[in-house]
Amino acid sequence: NSYFRYKDGVLHCEDVSIETIAKKVGTPFYLYSKKAIIDKINEYKEAFKDYPTIICYAAKANSNLSILKIFQENDIGCDIVSGGELYKAKKAGIPSNKIVYAGVGKTDFEIEFAIRENILSFNVESYQEIEVINSIAEKVGKVARISIRVNPDVDPKTHPYISTGMKKSKFGIDIDEALNIYKKAMQFKNIEIIGVHCHIGSQIMSISPYIEAVSKVAELVDKLKKEGIELKYFDIGGGIGIKYKITDEPPNIKDFANAIIPIVKQTGLNLIIEPGRSLIGEAGALITKVLFLKDKKEKHFVIVDSGMNDLVRPSIYDAYHHIMAVKIKDKTIKADIVGPICESGDFLGIDREICQVERGDLVAVMSAGAYGASMSSNYNVRPRALEVLVDNNNFKIIREREDYNYLIKLEEEVIQ
Ligand code: LLP
């Protein structure tokens, strides 16, 4: 893409050579282009500008504080799924009236925290959750705003692990039961029902499942109106896909908006959208260094210093990330790009053709801005990758590399 380009044979992020950054900060590291993020924000804003819409960035995609701060500075809200994400969103200065909170398993502690922070809406996923939110709100003497997450039973045609809107999924309340639940929820004194929510899945490559889902939910909104239940917000979740393979053609944001807005408009409700991946995914890459080359009869392996603890998507979803050498060479090789972790599932790419690399060369794993760093772990007692943000011809570290002391801190204090 235009934010990651070769100049004089070396891959750059905006105007900074990735080799220069690696020399300074070591490897592996996540690298983000600020311009890529801001351009995406503006693309969303432009697409939805003619309709009252709150854009709530799904923080789970990437919750680095400096990244959240970019969203805050551009008036974007947050879709959160935990107390931890709420804490970070508030630290980044995201106003509470732009925070919505989803998730099937909110703890009492998290619910109370969010009530005290006076967030815009709990996107509730069960009747029991409504009861609990009401009683906690009563305890702290507040009224909690909720939207009910309904499950429109639509197949988003994506990976089963990230399909969330089908009947068999744990998410939401079945759309046929929703009317009843709304009616029952009206009785609670410390609950204000403000909306309806749905989210059908992630990495969705066509607009039609959205049209189907949003139309179904719009019918529900009509029914509710007839029963005297007036809502304010129609939250359609996130899920728009991005380019992982060169040949991928994700939906255009403007087309998406143009398809959805007319349906929501008929309900008269304000719109909330919760994009995560599509705001940050293509803005990031994971930069890793070649440690060894290994040739077996069957296969060639490029062993790099980053693995499934840094980027788990290939291992658990069989996800494809485009991989390229940071330095262009005339010769190419075909190899599996694998990490150092003691599992056969630890790979970044299988049978990939990339420019000839040698020990010490850098490799870039593309479209890693979403669900990369945020899903990373310390497996094999590996410090998490450092994170760098590029802004034109400057770069800055936005997360330091963890050191061994950091890794043992919480255990050392209590060692028997
Ligand atoms: N809203 C809700 C309620 C969600 O559950 C999600 C994602 C989003 C919004 C944002 O979806 P996005 O626009 O990012 O697709 N770890 C997986 C993705 C899991 C998505 C979970 N929910 C992956 O790496 O593909």
UniProtKB/TrEMBL annotation:
<feature type="domain" description="Orn/DAP/Arg decarboxylase 2 N-terminal">
    <location>
        <begin position="36"/>
        <end position="280"/>
    </location>
</feature>
<dbReference type="InterPro" id="IPR000183">
    <property type="entry name" value="Orn/DAP/Arg_de-COase"/>
</dbReference>
<feature type="binding site">
    <location>
        <position position="343"/>
    </location>
    <ligand>
        <name>substrate</name>
    </ligand>
</feature>
<keyword id="KW-0456">Lyase</keyword>
<dbReference type="InterPro" id="IPR022644">
    <property type="entry name" value="De-COase2_N"/>
</dbReference>
<protein>
    <recommendedName>
        <fullName>Diaminopimelate decarboxylase</fullName>
        <ecNumber>4.1.1.20</ecNumber>
    </recommendedName>
</protein>
<feature type="modified residue" description="N6-(pyridoxal phosphate)lysine">
    <location>
        <position position="60"/>
    </location>
</feature>
<feature type="binding site">
    <location>
        <position position="239"/>
    </location>
    <ligand>
        <name>pyridoxal 5'-phosphate</name>
    </ligand>
</feature>
<feature type="binding site">
    <location>
        <position position="277"/>
    </location>
    <ligand>
        <name>substrate</name>
    </ligand>
</feature>
<comment type="pathway">
    <text>Amino-acid biosynthesis; L-lysine biosynthesis via DAP pathway; L-lysine from DL-2,6-diaminopimelate: step 1/1.</text>
</comment>
<dbReference type="InterPro" id="IPR022657">
    <property type="entry name" value="De-COase2_CS"/>
</dbReference>
<comment type="function">
    <text>Specifically catalyzes the decarboxylation of meso-diaminopimelate (meso-DAP) to L-lysine.</text>
</comment>
<feature type="active site" description="Proton donor">
    <location>
        <position position="342"/>
    </location>
</feature>
<dbReference type="GO" id="GO:0030170">
    <property type="term" value="F:pyridoxal phosphate binding"/>
</dbReference>
<dbReference type="GO" id="GO:0008836">
    <property type="term" value="F:diaminopimelate decarboxylase activity"/>
</dbReference>
<dbReference type="InterPro" id="IPR022643">
    <property type="entry name" value="De-COase2_C"/>
</dbReference>
<dbReference type="Pfam" id="PF00278">
    <property type="entry name" value="Orn_DAP_Arg_deC"/>
</dbReference>
<feature type="binding site">
    <location>
        <begin position="274"/>
        <end position="277"/>
    </location>
    <ligand>
        <name>pyridoxal 5'-phosphate</name>
    </ligand>
</feature>
<dbReference type="InterPro" id="IPR002986">
    <property type="entry name" value="DAP_deCOOHase_LysA"/>
</dbReference>
<feature type="binding site">
    <location>
        <position position="371"/>
    </location>
    <ligand>
        <name>substrate</name>
    </ligand>
</feature>
<comment type="subunit">
    <text>Homodimer.</text>
</comment>
<dbReference type="Pfam" id="PF02784">
    <property type="entry name" value="Orn_Arg_deC_N"/>
</dbReference>
<dbReference type="InterPro" id="IPR009006">
    <property type="entry name" value="Ala_racemase/Decarboxylase_C"/>
</dbReference>
<dbReference type="InterPro" id="IPR029066">
    <property type="entry name" value="PLP-binding_barrel"/>
</dbReference>
<feature type="binding site">
    <location>
        <position position="317"/>
    </location>
    <ligand>
        <name>substrate</name>
    </ligand>
</feature>
<keyword id="KW-0663">Pyridoxal phosphate</keyword>
<comment type="similarity">
    <text>Belongs to the Orn/Lys/Arg decarboxylase class-II family. LysA subfamily.</text>
</comment>
<keyword id="KW-0210">Decarboxylase</keyword>
<dbReference type="GO" id="GO:0009089">
    <property type="term" value="P:lysine biosynthetic process via diaminopimelate"/>
</dbReference>
<feature type="binding site">
    <location>
        <position position="371"/>
    </location>
    <ligand>
        <name>pyridoxal 5'-phosphate</name>
    </ligand>
</feature>
<feature type="binding site">
    <location>
        <position position="313"/>
    </location>
    <ligand>
        <name>substrate</name>
    </ligand>
</feature>
<keyword id="KW-0457">Lysine biosynthesis</keyword>
<feature type="domain" description="Orn/DAP/Arg decarboxylase 2 C-terminal">
    <location>
        <begin position="30"/>
        <end position="369"/>
    </location>
</feature>
<keyword id="KW-0028">Amino-acid biosynthesis</keyword>
